Amino acid sequence: MLMTLHEVRCLPFARVTLIATAASACLAGCVTHRTQLHEPGPADHQRWNTYSLQPQASIDAMGAWPRMTPDQVMRGEAGQDGTTPVVIEGTLSKVCLTMGCWVEMGTTGEPLLVMTRDHAFFVPRNAQGVLARAYGRAVAREQSVELLQHLAEDAGASADDIARITQPRTRIVFIADMIAMPPEGLDPPAR
Q: H or E element: which one contains 3?
């Protein structure tokens, strides 16, 4: 039995089914759109939360910076003198639990320490495991025992682990002007 469109619209279950089908189609498009966010685009900062003190014009310009992986930065491909601006993307393996002033991005080797420039901004402290993008510069820095112990304390290390830190070390640190990440499930950053 064929029904006219008017008859279909009048059936309550048909209306619900039609709405559910339309909603599913829309949501499927949204899910596809969300999963493609890891492909950098100039307007990503409009879809992701950005954490920065930079003016909007500077944030827009950062979209044109060259992109690298945390591994490339750790190998020194972004330089080590802080003069080459780059964008890195990776999953946050650790986040400062005190203020959100630093994160670590996982790499195939040692994680890359990403620090916010001059403690000028903070990221959500519950962002561990989140895909993020950092805009900034890499520098080689010697880190004192005190700083290394402070970072370990911020990460929630035990007193024994902190006490085992007895030597300074030099490592590549990424100084971020901005960090961007999807907003889903994140707390507001510390103030």
A: none
Question: How many helices (H) does the chain have, and how many strands (E)?
Answer: 7, 7
User: What are the extents of the domains in the chain?
Assistant: 5-34, 41-181
Residues with Cβ within 8 Å of 51's Cβ and at least 6 positions away in sequence, in order, are 116, 121, 122, 123, 178, 179, 180, 181, 189
CATH of 41-181, one of 2.40.50, 1.10.260, 3.40.50, 2.50.20: 2.40.50
Pull the structure tokens for residue 23: 């909603």
Outline where DSSP puts E strands in 48-189.
Answer: 49-52, 67-68, 86-95, 102-105, 112-116, 131-143, 169-181
Q: What's the DSSP call for residue 100?
A: S
The 10s digit of each residue's pLDDT in 33-50 is 222 334 445 445 557 888
173 DSSP β-pair partners? 113, 139
pTM value surpassing 0.90: no
Label residue 63 by pLDDT band (50, 70, 90): confident
Owner of token pair 């339309």: 22
**Measured in whole angstroms, how far is the alpha carbon of residue 21 from the centre of its chain?**
33
Q: Which of 1, 17, 148 is nearest to 9 (CA)?
A: 17
8 A C-beta contact, residue 115 and residue 175: yes
